[in-house]
Amino acid sequence: MPSIDDASQELPSVTEEMRSLQFFTDRHNFVRLLAECLNEDPAPRRIQVFHGEGGNGKSLLLRYLRTQCCKRLTPQTWQQVKALPDAKLAEYITGLKPGNYMPVPVALLDFGSAGLGVESSRDPFYGLLMLRRALGESADNLSQRLRFPLYDFACVWYLHQKGKSPDEIKALFPLGEAAGMVSTLIDVVSQNAAGAIANALFSFFAGGLGNRFTVYLAKVGLKKERVQQICQMDLDKELVFELPRLLGDDLNAAMAQKESPPRIVLFFDTHEAFWGHERQQPTAKYFERDAWVRKLLRRLDLEQGIVAIVAGRDVPRWAEAKAVAPKTDIPAEYLKTQRVGHLTEVDGAEYLQKVGIDDAALAQRLLAVARVAPDEVHPLYLGLCADVVLAARERGETLTAADFADLPDLTDTARQLIERLLRYVTPETRYAIEALSACRRFDYALYTTLGNALPSYYQPLRPHFDALIRFSFVWRDTQGGYRIHDLLRRLEDEREAPITREAHQVLLQHFQTQNSVEVLYHQNRLDWRQGVETWAEKFDEALHYSRYDLCRSLLDLRSDLLIRSDFMVGVVSDSEGQYFAALSQYVAAEQEFRESIAAYNGALQCPPDDVYALGNKGLTLQRLGDLQAGLSQHGEALSSYQEAIAAYDGALQRAPDDVDALSNKGLTLQRLGDLQASLSQHGEALSSYQESIAAYDGALQRAPDYVYALNNKGNALQRLGALQAGLSQHGEALSSYQQAIAAYDGALQRAPDLVEALNNKGLTLQSLGDLQAG
Prior knowledge:
By secondary structure, the protein is mostly helical. The protein has 36 helices and eleven strands.
């Protein structure tokens, strides 16, 4: 079974990445596991999963393995050293010098990276492109560079069709490749007619790949028809979700070459970041988030030497995806799980010695503070303890065990350690921490932006920045930026420190100039309701104009938004449901609609006469009914439409002049009539159409210039006429068609360029002519 699918100058922090790697301790069994994956033949057939509690050091482990352990030995050397104890084997491998091993191409994708630009590691387009870019850069020293011809073409095609300039496209690929290969691909897609692209592309592939082209043809099943299919795919509904398979196919073909590296390693970190605080979600919605990752992993031919390692807090529930997302599940037998536990006390003591804490009594007290179970020490807590001691030492203070005597074991430890740490840092560093806590992610440029805007708090100097990134709650990501631990960010949100709020205002203005979705995050932190309302407006606008890439960016932000009312949860979930319905992800759409309805029901508990909640509930029920009707779930659709009408009636009992409720009720009655007519429930359909027309008349009595009510009234009359004609009620049908034309004329008098009304009028005139001719 080759694949699941068919086819700085100041001393850095003790926990900042590079110095953290020097102090790395324990985890020798993971070094052995990776060594076996890289040196044992045949290659492992399973995806390696590292799981454990937050703060256990999984991210540090992956970076340690990536930078110190991705080394393949000669078969003879491996046979000589494989029997060594874990600690000795780890010491041997990490101590190897260049020339004594074969470097292994490696890519690390951290799903926890977010913000600062359009790229997100969780986005199905940009996340995959970041992985491909990392692979290309890692393999630059190989005699034969890894090539991804079909995937690269599809990416260039996607970006070109999205209106990106050649320079913008090139910037997204490794520099060494952009000058040649990507430039040629851009020429292919921009200088050839759609029908000639396949021929031009094949000529380029044959010339660029040389004798490897035949391997690609055989391994990928590359045909001109497939290129044509790519060009014909809807960019955001189809192509973006096909890209994982294309990259997988290209990677498989690259590894099938005689000169290919025996192994490559793909690291995926912080898997839980796909859901944020929404980890307990309905099933379909849960599995939609990381579907593209599953598609890629399914496609990989692991036997070719592709090693995949995924780290997160939980064991992935990928096998369960089969019930809601067929052909994206990953059966349990394809996973090898390994728990990343806490440090032992021996390893914790070794860590404290490495960072320079040699007071035995102090070390024992710190171990006690960080102890979470017998002989289990929490790495994050221990790192914070070390930070406190070292920060005090830099100020000339020597802490002893007695200084930590008042800290309770296991009870709110991290919070109190952070608060204590901030006592020992300089005021400028503390202010900078409080300001940067407003960021989802930051770099030196953003640190400088905040400092220049808030000069009374801190001056943006490089030495101060280097001191800031020393602490255990600051982590460097794979994109060269930093993020502050969620715990500290939550603390600052709760404290509502003035500088944090001022920082949100500065960042709001900063990201507005960049037209970034990050502006919504900061708006939400300043005024949660306004932020959510703006998010919903932007999302609905993007959906209306089919800007699905922007929708994805907004969805990625959604898990970090504060939403503090059931009503707004209903609004957001309804928007998400419309998005999934537009992408034909029907199960996820239904679950979002039901979540929205449940939220509106919660809002109606107090007060029960919330007209807006009733009206919005009706709209969502109508959309749910439309979805069910389209899936031939007729009984469910009838029930949803009837519940929607009841919700509108409830709103109208409280606000009889609510024009929107009247108009929406009319539309739902029309949809109900359409469904009844299709089920040959003719009497019920006639009644529903007539009630629909009456609801539109009620809206127009209150708002005579309501163009869309006029147009929709015409639609209901047109459908009524068609039903009457089919029932041989010719006189009634003639009258209905004529009234429909009058309604369209009324709409066009007020909005002469309303294309929908013009089109509908034409169709009705045609139906009228057919009836008169017959």
